[in-house]
Specification:
Elements (H helix, E strand, L loop, with lengths): L1 E5 L14 E5 L4 H10 L4 E4 L3 H9 L6 E7 L2 E2 L14 H4 L3 E5 L3 H8 L4 E5 L4 H11 L3 E6 L8 H18 L3 H4 L3 H13 L3 H7 L1 H8 L3 H7 L9 E5 L2 E4 L1
Parallel strand pairs: 1-8, 2-7, 2-8, 3-6, 4-6
Antiparallel strand pairs: 3-10, 4-5, 9-10
The structure holds D-malate.
């Protein structure tokens, strides 16, 4: 297995063969929300980069079993049911419903890898399930793609990519030089090791973490920092639709 880390969707190589397994990461907060919603019993999570397309597609869904999540700049989009806080995705709210989600960056990252054979999403909260999947299925090539922020690097996504690589290294007893497909994968592990005992502090250094604190969403940071806390693996069952593995 070779793991390649790309910090942003823009850094993903074009016109090359897609990997056997591609993993989207948007720790703050889309992939934390997706994992939480599926863990709380949502029927599936359908991701869109475009808000109007989300509205059009979700119109045909029974309104009692449909939840629209819309976020831009960390805030809830007007007219949407929820605004991308994982804390809102309680079983009482989401069980049995299809979630239709569009966020600033996370859903774009998912879109850029959606044609891969296997597509997963990772956050710190479900890191262990991703590691377990990789060790069990042994895909030859793996891409971990951070969402970044509007084209630029996000500390927390690369930190989470490093946590996944570190998990595979440790449990699989594979040396880093064998596992790392690019320099970014090595850097991601170093970043994770530096902050592994205080992920909230990693978030506080991150520009989007600071943005969320400014929006008084500090509890979201604390929740998203709980590494390996959920036993749920989101996997794409059809283009754009994630379900519990
Ligand atoms: C994103 O897609 O950029 C995020 O998930 C933003 C957020 O809701 O915190």
């Amino acid at each position: 297995m070779k793991i390649f880390v790309y910090h942003t969707p823009e850094a993903v190589p074009k016109n090359v063969a897609l990997p056997d397994c591609a993993i989207a990461v948007d720790v703050l907060r889309a992939t934390s929300t997706i994992a939480t919603a599926l863990n709380s019993g949502a029927e599936g999570v359908q991701a869109f980069s475009d808000l109007q397309t989300l509205i059009d597609v979700s119109e045909s869904w029974d309104s009692t079993h449909r939840i629209r999540i819309g976020e831009r700049g960390g805030k809830t989009v007007e007219g949407f049911d929820l605004g991308n806080s994982p804390l809102d995705c309680t079983p009482e709210r989401v069980k049995g419903s299809r979630i239709f989600i569009s966020t600033t960056n996370g859903t774009r990252a998912l879109e850029c890898i959606q044609a891969a054979k296997t597509v997963l999403t990772a956050a710190f909260i479900n890191r262990a399930t991703v590691v377990e999947y990789l060790l069990q299925h042994q895909p030859e090539t793996v891409w971990i793609v951070g969402s970044g922020w509007e084209g630029s690097y996000s500390l927390e996504d690369t930190g989470c990519a490093g946590a996944v690589v570190e998990g595979v290294l440790k449990a699989g007893k594979i040396p880093l030089e064998e596992l790392a497909g690019n320099d970014e994968a090595v850097a991601a592990v170093a970043l994770y090791r530096n902050f592994q005992h205080d992920l909230v502090s990693l978030f506080k250094h991150a520009s989007h973490g600071q943005r969320l604190v400014g929006l008084k969403l500090y509890e979201d940071l604390e929740y998203c920092a709980q590494i390996d806390s959920l036993n749920v693996l989101p996997i794409q069952k059809e283009i754009g639709v994630l379900v519990k593995h």
